[in-house]
Amino acid sequence: MRYRRVWVRAVLAGVLVVLLTACAGQQATPAPAAPLRFAWTYREGDYTLLLAQQMGLFQRYGVNVEPVLYDSYSQARADMVAEVIDGGIFPIGDLLLMASKTDLQGVFISDNGGIAAVVAAAEIGNVRDLRGKRIGVTLHTSSEMFISYMLETAGLTSRDVALIEMKPQDVPASIPEVVDAGFVVEPYTSQAMRQGLRLLYSSERYGSLLPNLIVFRQRVVQEQPQRVRAFVRAWNEAAAYRIAHPQEASAILEQVTGRPARELGLSGTVTFYTLEDNRRFFAENPGLDPGSIYYVAQRNLYFLTSLGDISQPLDLNTLLNPSFLQE
User: Fold this and answer.
1) Domain that includes residue 62, residue range
2) CA-to-CA dists, residue 119 to 72, 202, 295, angstroms
3) Which pLDDT value is given to residue 287?
4) Does 213 lie in the same domain as 190?
5) Do 308 and 237 belong to one domain?
6) pLDDT digits (tens, 9 = 90+) for 265-322
7) 216 and 93 share a domain?
8) pLDDT at 261 over 80
9) Which one is predicted more confidently, 3 or 208?
10) Structural domain tally of the chain?
């Protein structure tokens, strides 16, 4: 009888070991990581996100991404500050404004933002004719900085005109009833031209002062650097594909969105950047060359601070993170 009790105890002990081992194995298996929720809008530079997703590049590099569509940058900015999303494509000025409210990092310059422009009613022949006129622009952003530089070329300042709060997509339909001129980027520049408006001012040089960046919340960068690196690698490959095969890329985007190229605003005026380009942009710090992202960021920061929109110091070396540009 004593031997039977010993045998029973041994069997029970063995079963317990098996159960504990199984439980431990189950606990050791981590739950699948939630996807990176990444904002995009119907803007030419943002479509690289959809291309990377459709081509399976995010999956290839091992990162799960959920594209989140927004009607405008303004709502995406609000959700970024509120930590509703993990990242998105934002102009440098938006990054600076958001960074004054929450911790963010720009890790990659995605594109040049296209050629910024001011369109106007047909009777306005040059920038000097804007004196006393109404100009539609998104106030307290780098777009207002563009307007300021444009006015300087004609010896004018913002005090010589009336700046009206207006989004680029609303400008073409608002001329001449609501405003006389307005700031636009593609696809709204082409839309304005089709309506017979005048392309009053366009500058690739100043357009380069308004680049778009891949932005993530700083906590995501710090806690999940491998996923951010995978995202950048996938994005870079998709951008390189757009550069090398524009027609094929456009066909894929038309299929994904269900919209023809004309509605997508595929103008060809946006310059997409790769890892090699980014290494050059990040190379000079603090940067006296207009091609340096640190120079561009400092220029935008100075202007937004002069408007009173940013009141606290921002460390550009923390805000701009080039560590994901290395092989």
Assistant:
1) 36-113+209-325
2) 20, 9, 28
3) 62
4) no
5) yes
6) 787 778 999 999 999 999 877 667 778 999 999 989 999 999 888 988 899 999 999 9
7) yes
8) yes
9) 208
10) 2
Using CA atoms, how far residue 10 sits from 5, 14, 21, in Å, is 9, 6, 17
Is residue 266 a part of any domain in this protein? Answer: yes
Looking at 182, 202, 222, the residue that finishes a domain is: 202
CB 287 within 8 A of CB 298: yes
In angstroms, rounded to a whole number, what is the distance separating the alpha carbons of residues 197 and 180? 10
The average pLDDT across 226-247 equals 98
The dihedral over CA atoms of 234, 239, 244, 249, expressed in degrees to the nearest 10, equals 90
Range in 29-38, 74-83, 189-198, 305-314 with the lowest mean pLDDT: 29-38
The answer to whether residues 91 and 227 belong to one domain is yes
Looking at residue 83, its pLDDT comes to 96
- Facing residues of 214 across strands? 89, 108
Say what the pTM is. 0.81
Examine residue 286 and state whether it is found in any structural domain, yes or no: yes
Mean pLDDT calculated for residue range 201-221: 85
Burial of 313 (0-12, 13-18, 19+ CB in 10 A): exposed
- Of 163, 180, 202, the position where a domain reaches its end is 202
